[in-house]
Backbone:
């Protein structure tokens, strides 16, 4: 964190998206006293690594939502960005409001099915209640099917089995190996072993073919889940953990010449959108060859903010270099496995580093606020 940067009155950075990348960029610009506006559809930051536990443990959801206004005050604007005028350097909100920028940081993130992702424009109190309602439904269901065996799916199944070991939990995954393809084979096998030890029934190499007909996240008697291999599973609840996509709607019209196939923005080594010196893309919406993770988004945010400050001072820009994969998978509060700088790490390290509290204390600290009730400090 540096001191105040020397900026003229024409400088105003707009950050679109208040996820991990957006708040990291905002805090960095704040530390330099650079004028900025952070825009998000919600009124609170969502610590979504805690979303799955918030779905099974009552009281945890309130630890995963943190007010933007309390941290960023007049630098925060709630609203939905529907377009960007590159020529006029304006961000256009759904309300019709226009926010002018000298520099733009796009941090729109990705979306996917609830409960792993949450992007509804409701109040923080309502968001918390939605998770609390899901907890009650999970408690009622004796049989739960989790669809998708990526990191969210395996963590979801483990969370349910940790709190409710007597429930029948089935995980269906279209591939044979679990989680991210960049993980070491020993880590992916370790995930499988943990789930089996917890009593999760694994149906791998199978795809659910009637997903569009299923009611998800609701308790319902005798739901029939059918796979392409002819397997039929009767359950009381279905939770979907598949289908993550880049949130490109805010910029896809203005930036159609800079889009990768998945809707992410093509960027250079400084995280600038190709050919645009004053526009940066960070986090999931940046086309960077590394897994889409909160940790990486935070690193991007600091680099983008520093590069804006460096460009104003005519200094060299920082280069962002993807490092060795670091991914810690929490398998309930008492178990976990992962990879740290390319090395396999086991239960003890992952539980101490992440699984116990899912790093919620870190987000409260970065937002400069005090977490509710429980002591979340490391």
Residues:
């Amino acid at each position: 964190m540096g001191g105040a940067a020397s900026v003229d009155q024409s400088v105003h950075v707009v950050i679109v998206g208040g996820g991990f990348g957006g708040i990291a960029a905002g805090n960095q610009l704040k530390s330099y006293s650079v004028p900025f506006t952070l825009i998000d559809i919600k009124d609170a930051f969502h610590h979504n690594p805690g979303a799955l536990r918030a779905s099974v443990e009552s009281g945890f959801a309130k630890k995963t939502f943190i007010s933007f206004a309390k941290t960023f005050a007049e630098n925060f604007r709630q609203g939905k960005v529907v377009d960007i005028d590159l020529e006029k350097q304006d961000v256009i909100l759904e309300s019709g409001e226009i926010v002018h920028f000298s520099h733009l940081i796009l941090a729109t993130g990705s979306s996917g099915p609830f409960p792993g992702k949450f992007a509804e424009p409701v109040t923080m109190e309502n968001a918390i209640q939605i998770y609390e309602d899901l907890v009650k439904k999970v408690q009622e269901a004796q049989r739960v099917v989790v669809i998708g065996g990526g990191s969210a799916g395996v963590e979801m199944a483990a969370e349910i089995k940790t709190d409710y070991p007597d429930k029948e939990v089935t995980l269906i995954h279209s591939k044979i190996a679990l989680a991210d393809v960049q993980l070491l084979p020993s880590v992916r096998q370790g995930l499988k072993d943990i789930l089996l030890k917890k009593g999760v029934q694994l149906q791998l190499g199978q795809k659910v073919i009637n997903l569009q007909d299923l009611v998800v996240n609701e308790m319902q008697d005798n739901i029939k889940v059918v796979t392409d291999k002819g397997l039929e599973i009767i359950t009381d609840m279905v939770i979907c953990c598949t289908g993550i996509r880049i949130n490109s709607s805010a910029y896809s019209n203005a930036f159609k010449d800079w889009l990768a196939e998945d809707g992410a923005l093509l960027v250079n080594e400084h995280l600038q959108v190709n050919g645009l010196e004053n526009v940066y893309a960070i986090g999931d919406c940046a086309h960077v060859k590394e897994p889409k993770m909160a940790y990486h988004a935070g690193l991007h945010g600091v680099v983008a903010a520093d590069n804006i400050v460096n460009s104003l001072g005519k200094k060299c820009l920082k280069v962002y270099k993807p490092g060795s994969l670091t991914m810690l998978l929490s398998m309930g509060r008492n178990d976990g496995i992962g990879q740290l700088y390319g090395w396999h790490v086991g239960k003890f390290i992952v539980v101490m580093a992440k699984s116990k509290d899912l790093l919620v204390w870190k987000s409260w600290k970065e937002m400069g606020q005090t977490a509710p009730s429980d002591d979340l400090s490391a």
In short: The first helix runs from residue 20 to 31. The chain has a mean pLDDT of 95. The chain has nine helices and 21 strands. The longest strand covers residues 168-173.
